[in-house]
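@channel anyone free to eyeball this complex?
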Amino acid sequence: MLVVQKYGGTSVRDIERIMNVAKKTVEYKNKDNDIVVVVSAMAGETDRLLNIAHEIAKFPDDREMDVLISTGEQVTSALLAISLKEIGYDAVSVLGYQVRIVTDSSFGKARITDVEKEKIFAELKKGKIVVVPGFQGVDEDGNITTLGRGGSDTTAVALAAGLNADLCEIYTDVDGVYTTDPNICNRARRLDTISYDEMLEMASLGAKVLQTRSVELAKKYNVPILVKSSLVEGIGTLVCKEDMMSMEQVVISGVSYNKNEAKITVVNVPDKPGIAAKIFTALSDANIVVDVIVQNVSRGDFTDITFTIAKTDAKKAYKIMEEVAPGVGAEKVNIDNDIAKISIVGLGMRSHSGIASKMFSILAHEGVNIEAITTSEIKISCVIESKYGELAVRALHKGFGLDAEDVKEEK
Amino acid sequence: MLVVQKYGGTSVRDIERIMNVAKKTVEYKNKDNDIVVVVSAMAGETDRLLNIAHEIAKFPDDREMDVLISTGEQVTSALLAISLKEIGYDAVSVLGYQVRIVTDSSFGKARITDVEKEKIFAELKKGKIVVVPGFQGVDEDGNITTLGRGGSDTTAVALAAGLNADLCEIYTDVDGVYTTDPNICNRARRLDTISYDEMLEMASLGAKVLQTRSVELAKKYNVPILVKSSLVEGIGTLVCKEDMMSMEQVVISGVSYNKNEAKITVVNVPDKPGIAAKIFTALSDANIVVDVIVQNVSRGDFTDITFTIAKTDAKKAYKIMEEVAPGVGAEKVNIDNDIAKISIVGLGMRSHSGIASKMFSILAHEGVNIEAITTSEIKISCVIESKYGELAVRALHKGFGLDAEDVKEEK
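replying in thread with the prediction:
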């Protein structure tokens, strides 16, 4: 079996942890597997390098920043290869440009275009454990590129796809994907399996565990990802294609929760073509990412357009809307920072009716007013008043039968 | 004019110094020169990385060590390129494998076999200042290699040779090459020029300033090297071909001094073929480098063989000689740790007679006994009692007319 393993920054934080990773790796190797290990920079190292550069320049050159910060993963790769050799296993580090992990030339946020497999297969054939630094690639001109924050997950999945690996294991500091945030709901359960689509929709839960981009890539190339803890034993959560999951689906897999958004409503805009385009073009020109968009059926010739954005963008977005509003004939712009977005996610809702009404009933029963609703095929999101956030999570988690029998121990 | 500049670890020790290097570089650029800058790792960084690796393994893998420690120069290169851009000059870092600086595969002590020039010329043509990390190269299989301690000097000279540069400037923490060690003789003078051969022979003075290997390379490809201080203004010392120097040669260029050797004498060995070979093969098998070797004409069928080695090897060498001595029919082995080696170096001695006798007279006049003598074409070395070392340096410096008129200021 060919397995790609990825260890994040906290898993390789110091020499002791790196030695621990080496031991975990050889356990697999001893079971006659071929292993490719992807490593992040030691925790704190990337920030240390960024800080030095920012002492020199407010906006340091993108290309040179990639030359600089890619050294973090390079150091960990060499140290892990040294550790593996020290405990008697043959290992070799293969850097991004040696693999080659080919990317476009968007320094700092490059996208992988190709993963060559000859070099890694040649080393595996010699019986070696191959160590690859995450986060880095090389463009067609031979420049070092990096994939952006959390890019090591993407490296691991891309390698697994390119090498046609049987499994991609992501080791992190949590032991899997949970039905909801255990900090909010002490009856949250670890899921044994979750589909790519559910993982993508469960952004607020999932993003803490796996970078969204890596899940998209895994879905595209059908790479099974096993999320596990590098610190405690456990079976983890398998992120995989729907049909690899157990036959009898639970309807709802998880309750997701986001308190970091603000809501803006453009009130009484004329209900005619081109208005929404004007509003959202103005936002995208300012590089503001919009999450939920709700437009209701019009009252006569007018309607309201509501959207949510990250709280950090709220002030900027509000200012832009105040400028845009008169031009599109809107009455006024309202902003609300005091919101929470609650979502239930599950493949099962495609074949089960009454999920939405059940969600609304549960919220109503707790006295929670719903300010906006959006739905996708496998997700229903409600914007509610922020103070009800945790309450709503617990009520929905219980109401949809997700509660564990035992209360989750405090960490 | 195309100039290669090299800045050592203390010259790029922190952000302030790196910015300072950037400023020095653009001064040249503004004079319409093409500039390639070679940088070392920030002072202390290489040792930091070595220490981490040695915490993991007593003998870490050579290949992976090069992957690890080459990051030090990579970081400095990126930071200098960022600094140059920050002050408004276009710059680009080009790593060893991007240049490509091709080496053999002797990890940790690789030798340069080829320097490709296309990439650097292409960047210079775009008007960019090119920053190249010293110390690192790439072998034919694409593995990262390093050149050994002080390798950045060699990188700079190799680049200057490969690019056919007009000048190679080495910036360091001293302002040039001196006639002798100013710490011993306060009338030591900075030399304006020195020939490659003199520089090579003046090991104890020169090696503190330039790596011997880089001087050999400069001589082979006739690259003029200008040694300057990165901290204070000055004209430095030009290391160059003999015929570039002023017509009227001084006879002696400098007095060199070494207190870090020990002397071993194998007493009364039979004067027949193969004996010396046996002795020195035993030493080289143990990786002991021998400096001076003296064998006198035989007394009848017997002779003494004297040699010097680094003090750190003295114990080991003595033990080996005690084992070898009976087999070669020697009477006994003597060791003396209390020696100093004093050398006078100068191209002029080839055409001037009486230099050796003058040296011996000066020493005799000071009551210094000479224990061994060796000579090359442009150097005469005497082994003397260690306690007379500094006295001998000052006497020879004065006797050969090297004294400055003014006493060198205390630093």
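from a first look: The interface with chain B takes residues 15, 18-19, 49, 52-53, 55-57, 60-61, 63-65, 67-68, 71, 74-75, 77-79, 81-83, 85-86, 92-93, 95, 97-98, 142-144 of chain A (CB under 8 Å).
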